[in-house]
Amino acid sequence: MRTLLLASIAALSLSGCGYNDFQRLDEGVKAAWSEVLNNYQRRADLIPNLVATVQGAADFEKSTLVEITNARASVSAIKATPELINDPDAFAKFQAAQSQMSGALSRLLAVAENYPQLTATKEFGELRAELAGAENRITVARGRYIKAVEGYNILTREFPSNLTAMLFGYKTKANFTVENEKAIAVPPKVDFSKPAAK
After folding, report:
1. Contact (CB, 8 A) for 85 and 33
2. Does 192 have pLDDT greater than 50?
3. CA separation (Å) from 175 to 3, 61, 101, 147, 165?
4. What is the model's pTM?
5. Alpha helices in the chain (DSSP H)
6. 3-state secondary structure of 159
7. Within a 13 Å sphere around the CA of 152, how many CA atoms are in the beta-carbon half?
8. Is CATH 1.20.1440.20 what the domain over 21-175 is classified as, yes or no?
């Protein structure tokens, strides 16, 4: 009888400490992270086809192709394991590599606009649509990851579950940030005095 009473007290004290919540939310963060990685991989897989299609355009700017190839290599060099989300430095490197890739893709698509014979091809149009879809999926997956990390980090920091976090070594997880917050804080300049381009 006494053993049963002690077991009941132990069970009640563990259920109120947040231990099980940590397990549930940690698994949610891992699942959301896997979705982010899956979508980034989908985007990276489109790049060889995009580069091959663009290379077919006569005198296409080689520096742009080199830049996107190098960006893809940087992304591929980072081992994006589930442990990466527990290492703020590794997470920052991953985020920087993905930002470099996004920038290179944007420049490639902007330069491609100067080649009407390229942009008119069916292959380029399909790849551009697939890339836009991949970027949208990345945005959604990152949003889900941000929400999952928010829940986990709140549990890690609020009382009394923060005591459980300290006891079992649970730490807050890294989250996505805006690369240059100062740049987005400046409102865009709009000049209505110039006529719109036709």
Report:
1. yes
2. no
3. 44, 36, 19, 9, 18
4. 0.74
5. 2-15, 19-55, 62-77, 88-112, 116-119, 122-157, 161-168, 181-185
6. coil
7. 26
8. yes
